[in-house]
Design goal:
single chain; mainly beta; four-stranded antiparallel beta sheet; 1 helix; disordered C terminus
Length: 95
């Protein structure tokens, strides 16, 4: 008998201050990475899928991101180059 399946892992990569596209408030957003791994006999072996998203801590809206966008935001948070609220390149997320 072979026991196999999947297991999900959720990683919090960073907390960023962004303008929410849903509520319009400049609020903290958590940048998260969700990884689903294939398991064999309850041992996680390799990732099947990886998804990135931000979630507004004010209203709870979630925005899915591409891997490149998530890496850019992670680098921005790690580099300490956080931008103040009014920067023109920091557009709100659209649904």
């Amino acid at each position: 008998m072979i026991i196999f399946g999947t297991k999900g892992y959720l990683y919090q990569l960073a907390i960023l201050t962004l303008v929410c596209g849903r509520c319009g408030n400049p609020a903290a957003h958590t940048l998260r990475k969700q990884v689903t791994k294939f398991t064999l006999f309850f041992v996680p072996l390799f990732p099947i899928s990886t998804k990135y998203a931000t979630q507004c801590t004010f209203c709870g809206a979630e925005q899915k991101l591409a891997k490149e966008q998530a890496e850019q935001l992670t680098a921005q948070a790690a580099g300490g180059h956080g931008q103040p609220y009014g920067q023109p390149h920091q557009q709100p997320y659209q649904h």
